């Protein structure tokens, strides 16, 4: 099983600031099969980024995914109030399709 | 716009069974329910996401998390645009919100239902 470890576990920032979220895999992940999801309280996850760097439909360009191999990053360039949520990375290249434990992005 | 609606959750005693359903709609004329793989993903209260099971577009291939293998069965009825999860021998640790999710052509999970809560308790 490919274990994904996200850091930090939580991040306190202010609107307008830049957020950098990390996802490290225990085994190499093809960039084709790395995704990021956003989840707000009481809601289902929403696909943000797939293929490590491709924004899903309707996702604003302040969200940027990057990385390869075992290290991936989600960057939110200028935080908007609606961006405060929990973010999960996921590898979907092979079963089991594992998720990271999540990074909670909080308002400072 | 694809919509996924789960149902069938509830409170069940340990050792009992429950079947979840996920009704899909909103496909266009070019691609239909039967063109896509589907997944079940769960989230225990206050915890992260855990992938549970995958079924291929035609139902011929199925994969499971080790935590549910041998107890849960994923299936689909393409004539009804519906995905199922049969859960047997339920345990307290199966308590979670269960989401169905559509696999995109790029294999990521591009549409999710709102989830259905399963509580396993005596």
Describe what you observe in this structure.
Chain A has no helices and nine strands. Chain A has strands at residues 4-7, 10-13, 19-29, 34-39, 46-50, 54-55, 63-76, 86-91, 103-107. By secondary structure, chain B is an all-beta fold. In chain B, 0% of the residues lie in helices and 50% in strands. In chain B, the strands form two sheets. In chain B, strands 2, 4, 5, 6, 9, 10 and 11 form a seven-stranded mixed beta sheet that branches.
Give a summary of the structure in a few sentences.
Chain A is mostly beta strands.
Structural class assignment of chain B = mainly beta
Order of helices and strands of chain A: EEEEEEEEE
For the largest beta-sheet of chain B, the strand count, sense and barrel status come to: 7 strands, mixed
The biggest sheet of chain A amounts to:
6 strands, mixed
How far the N terminus sits from the C terminus of chain B, by CA atoms, comes to: 40 Å
Radius of gyration of chain B: 14 Å
Overall, the morphology of chain A is globular
* Strand order in the largest sheet of chain A: 2-9-8-4-5-6
Mean pLDDT of chain B: 96
Percentage of β-strand residues of chain A? over 45%
Q: In which range does the helix fraction of chain A lie?
A: under 10%
| Global geometry of chain B | globular
Largest interface: A-B, 26 and 21 residues
**Helix and strand pattern of chain B:** EEEEEEEEEEE
Helix count of chain A, per DSSP? Answer: 0
Total count of helical runs of at least 4 residues of chain B: 0
Report, as a whole number of angstroms, the end-to-end distance of chain A. Answer: 35 Å
Low-pLDDT regions of chain B: none
Amount of helix of chain B: under 10%
Question: What is the β-strand count of chain A?
Answer: 9
Oligomer: heterodimer
């Amino acid at each position: 099983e490919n274990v994904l470890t996200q850091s930090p576990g939580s991040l306190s920032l202010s609107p307008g600031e830049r957020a950098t979220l990390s996802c490290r895999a225990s085994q190499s992940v093809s960039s084709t099969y790395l995704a990021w999801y956003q989840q707000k309280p009481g809601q289902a996850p929403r696909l943000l980024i797939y293929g490590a760097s491709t924004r899903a439909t309707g996702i604003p360009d302040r969200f940027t995914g990057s990385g390869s191999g075992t290290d991936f990053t989600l960057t939110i360039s200028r935080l908007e109030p609606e961006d405060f949520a929990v973010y999960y990375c996921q590898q979907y290249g092979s079963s089991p399709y594992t998720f990271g434990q999540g990074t909670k992005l909080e308002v400072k | 716009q694809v919509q996924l609606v789960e149902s069938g959750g509830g409170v069940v005693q340990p050792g009992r069974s429950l079947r979840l359903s996920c009704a899909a709609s909103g496909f266009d004329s070019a691609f239909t329910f039967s063109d896509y793989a589907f997944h079940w993903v769960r989230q225990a209260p206050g915890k992260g996401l855990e992938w549970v099971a995958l079924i291929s577009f035609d139902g011929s291939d199925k994969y499971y998390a080790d935590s549910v293998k041998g107890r849960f069965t994923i299936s689909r009825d393409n004539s009804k645009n519906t995905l199922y999860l049969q859960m047997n021998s339920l345990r307290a640790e199966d308590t979670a919100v269960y989401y169905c999710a559509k696999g995109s052509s790029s294999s990521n999970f591009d549409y999710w239902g709102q989830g259905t809560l399963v509580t396993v308790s005596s």
